[in-house]
Amino acid sequence: MGALIRFFIKILDICKLVPMLPVVVIAAIPLALLGDWRPWGNAMAIPVLGNPGFGQWLVIALVLIIVIDTVRGMIDDLRHGQVGVDVLAVVAILSTVAVAEYWASWAVTLMITSGEAIEEYAQAKAERSLTALMEAAPQTAHVVNLPGVGRGFAADKGESSDGFRRVGLATAAAAAHRFDTVPVEQVQLGDVLMVLPGETVPVDGELLSGTATLDLSNINGEPVPREVFAGARVMSGAVNGSTALTMRATQVAADSQYQRILELVASAQESRPAVVKTADRLAVPFTVLSLVIAGIAWAMSGVPTRFAQVLVLATPCPLLIAAPVAYIAGTGRLAAAGVLIKAQDVLENLGRVTQVFFDKTGTLTVKQPQVVRVEMLPGATTRLNEDHVLMMAGVVESYSVHILSKGIAKAGVEAMARLRQRFEDGQRLCPEPEASWPGHGREYPVVKNINEDAGKGVSGEVNGHAVRVGRLSFAAAGEDGFLAAGEADPLSPRSGQLPLRGGAQQKDDLHTRFGLLQPDEMASYVSVDGQLIARIVLRDVPRANAKTALADLHELGVTKLAMLTGDKRASAEIIANEVSIDEVHSELFPEDKVAAVKAATEASAVTTGRANHDDTNVVGAAAGVRTDDSQPSRSRYGHAATRNPVTMMVGDGVNDAPVLAVADIGVAMTDGTSTAASESAQVVIMNDNIAAVPRAIAIARRTKRVMLQAVLAGLVLATIGMIAAAFNLIPVVVGAFLQEAIDVVSILWALTALIDRD
Question: Each residue of 369-383: pLDDT tens digit?
Fold first, then answer.
């Protein structure tokens, strides 16, 4: 019973979308019962139509309404440069009235209105991923009205005397009872906002609460909620977890992240893809073909009805419905995969990509350098191991803004977890007082006196122990400077100490004892209680799935994968070898990247062969990059010439914005935040996942394939039906319902673009 009720509810919803549909259906009753009833006798007889009955006049009225609405739509389409097959619908329905085939007229009106209803339902189903995004848009915001809190205090976030950041004046507990609910458009910069559990963050801002758990699935498709801490950026569209949070607005609603996403969606929906335009172009010859077949059938038979028989099978035609439905389905699938496109033409071009250029840092690699190992200083006497070093360094680096700080802080958290697990397993590796450190009985470290010396390092106290992390000269510095003469170095073989012999010489000795770094490595040095004990080695590491994603691109037929980077050759080559990049252009400025992509985009044919440093001049000239020895290019594979290649550039940073704008397809990888790269690109990957690049291409290709299959299948079936009707094998009424069946088949075929087969 419940299923039956849901079925009728769905029918009512469809009728609401197309109000004429139930009117046409009901019109069948008077046509059947009162079709020939003429209470006026012969007083209403007119040329061509004769003297229709009451029920027949109702059908004629419906025909006129539909014809007027269709003609109005045709005129509007022509104004926008769109040509369809609406003319066939008009001619067909009028011809059935002219030959007094009123049941056929009713059938055609039913076909047109039901086809419109099916189209609306199909598009609504295909747009679900997009409309869900729009429906979740925040409408209101809770503005905290506590005294001394708000936009007037937006700048009162300086550093406290003990080195800790002061992130806000309002606590969640206090703010929970003092806020005003206003429309989101009324939020101003600097307003302190309360976001209750389960609510959507209304605008972009800065977190004031200590911690918060945010669901970012609406923004970037990330399935796992993300925990953020005081001072972190929170984005509009994120859903708050189970605890109320306070935040300070840093953007108004119109400039916030969620509004930017909605603008992307609206832009895509308003444009027309090339494949839909192709369907429009097919409409002209199909219309001519249909009229020719109908005219020949009339001329050869001498029966005017034959003309109507043919045309009812030619309209409304899958060209009107199948192509846009398939496109919307493909766009919805891209959105579900975390990929937003700004224009429908992008979908067509995505399927024709022949070469892809990648930025290195943050695109092929993770966004921050990652810890790869900890090297204990040979000869240093300490009971601390690598995990202890990482834990302490990670604690102090969590307060730093240096490029290496996030990688060390992340490694510190992981080290703390390992230490805690060892303690739980009964391993007591640290003597007192170290035994009270995190992982050894203490849940969280006690941190004091954090101080960052810009460009040098960061220092602080961790559970009462002085910790310095940064450059060698900073970490090993004494009170009187770097390893000053006369001091005792705490690292001698006898007592853990060595006599100092002068700063420069001792510094060189320490470098030698640690060993040389690889070209793509960098290091931070760590001292504890004035004793230099270790260095933390970091490097720019490839994304875990980068190599697989690039292999998928090759399998999709992408002929060339190239890297455009400002990094040095040695570092770029290491990453390229790890992810299997075909060609590398290193030490480029942004203008060099633009030149390289422009050259590839504008070339009518591109031939790339194996290249090395000796033929850099030739390759560099073809690629539009500088041709000196500092701009090496390398190619692993030779590729056949390709005509009119479609180039794609994938990047993430501000420096990538110009090259993303000039590429045939610019793809910006983000974590859901709005960046200069996402503003310049035609495609935005919201989940910061490089695997979305080959997936987007695969979805685009399948969508186009399904589009063409649905359109061509409908045209072929309609043509066969028209030929059969020309030989009087299909009556007018039967032909009208048969065309409806053809439309349904085409639409259902188009909807298969929603099926995830990639």
Answer: 889 999 998 877 777
